[in-house]
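P.,

For your records, the input lines for the assembly:
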Amino acid sequence: MKRFIVRRIGYALLSLVVLSLTIFVFVRLTGDPAVLLVEPGASKGDIDAIRTDLGLDRPLFVQYALFVKGLVRGDFGRSFYYRTPVLDLYLERLPNSLLLALVAMAFSLLIGIPSGILAAVRVNGWWDGAGKVFALLGLSMPSFWVGLLLILFFSVYLGWLPSSGSGTPWHVLMPAFALGWYFAAAHMRLTRSSMLEVLGSEYIKLARLKGLPEALVIGKHAFKNALIPVLTLAGINLVLMVNVSVVVETIFAWPGVGRLLYEGIAFRDFPVVQTTVILSGVMIVLVNLTVDLLYAVIDPRIRYER
Amino acid sequence: MSVSRADTSRAAALTVAWRLAAFRREGLPLFPIAILTVLALLAIFAELIAPHDPQVGLLGERFRPPAWQQGGSTAHLLGTDHVGRDVLSRLIFGARVSMVVGFTAVIVAGVIGTTLGILAGYLGGWVDQVIMRVTDAWLAFPALTFAIFLAAIVGPSEMNIVIILALVYWTRYARVVRGEVLSLKERDFVRLAIVAGCSKRTIMKRHILPNVVNSAIVLATLMLGIVIVTEAALSFLGVGVPPPKPAWGLMLADGKKGLMAGYWWLTVLPGVCIMLMVLSANLLGDWLRVKLDPQLRQL
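Structure tokens returned:
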């Protein structure tokens, strides 16, 4: 167990090193990073100052060491536009993104789990067919288009919901639905296949042989076990949602980290872009590590693999 | 006995119908193939089909609704946008952008990913370690965020988009291909090739590559949809195809300007095009997956 944990943490650290190297190399590959990291229209003196700051006149490995040192200390640079440290900006926006992701997750589970169960119980029936169509549409309709359609319908034609901004519970509904839409399809697919697997197992046959009513067999015995992989995926997806919401947050002017990334592009605020990308990579590496470790705790078979 | 012309043409028609029916029996997915064919034809013959120049508009003609609505005219069948450009023409030329960017990116990513996957799987050792560590770390970036980061560095152009998408998505191929190579490596025909004295290079090229091509093609088809959505998202955010080029994602971004005024055609129509193309790619990919490569079914 200990060896397993150590190895997994080692992999995670290695991933973080590769991530930082990737960012480091790409920024330098395309030319002069000082130009990217300095405000547009800055004087030659400013550019030279940045150059010595980053140590661009020194060997590459020294530059990389300086870069990593900054990251470890939480020094991600300053935003040109807001003139504050990028990390502060990021942490300020993060709760909004988490709120959006939580509501989106609720939507996706409320749609995905019941429809997945129905599709599995009535396999190859009408519900299953409808579920397949829904899953395909979920994968094929980009979330930003869903968001625009929602605005068109609920804000413009019906005038029920505010089209952008934040503040009231009404504001979160449409962006959350647009964001959750894609994930609802994924959760439905997994619920269906997980349910089918459980329903074919021995203990379900036994429960049926005992003469338990079908509703109890499905609702209590099958559902509970089928839920485990779905909830695992949901946990990973929650973090993913925070990090892929850039387009949805842009459309609805939702003040989260995705919107911050968009502002970074729009205002040519490169430190903001770089930080958002690094932090989303770090977050996902950490979540994957957590899931691996939790699984090893729950299921001993995994520990001895490899 | 002479055969009349009507008979032969009827026989020909019957043969065609029978062939189509046979395709149906084999489950050839007619819907996605039809959609993709139409889009490909539109993309190739855009200049001949499009009624107007997609990049030039008349400001006096701005925000015209589609022809069947009040105020629409047959000159602009699907209406005009915020600077008076013909929506139908832009949609047709947009098919070209999506097709070219989508296919090129999928192919470039496929070539990079398959090559590295084969090298990692067959050579093993430190080559495998290096390639797979990079693959794992890159898979940890959310694709869209990573693409935005790269786009912010190199700036928008169609060529850059293809490179960016290839850089972001080759990892998926590398993973799948490496896994397959690991099992192929143990098969008898590869061992025989080693005994026969083939060089590693020859084995990878002549014996391994042909056996992973199927999976790579299935994956490429499934990736086509993802790549097109990513391209649209990048263009929508202003780091993709540069304006005034007619890309569907850009049209959606422009359409936002008329959204609150209820100019629905600017938002609905480009999205429908994206959806049809992605849907077709997904359906075709699913079908290919079942036909070509049963092992990939769990993916």
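Two observations worth noting. Chain B touches chain A through 43 residues (CB under 8 Å). The two ends of chain B are 59 Å apart (CA to CA).

Regards
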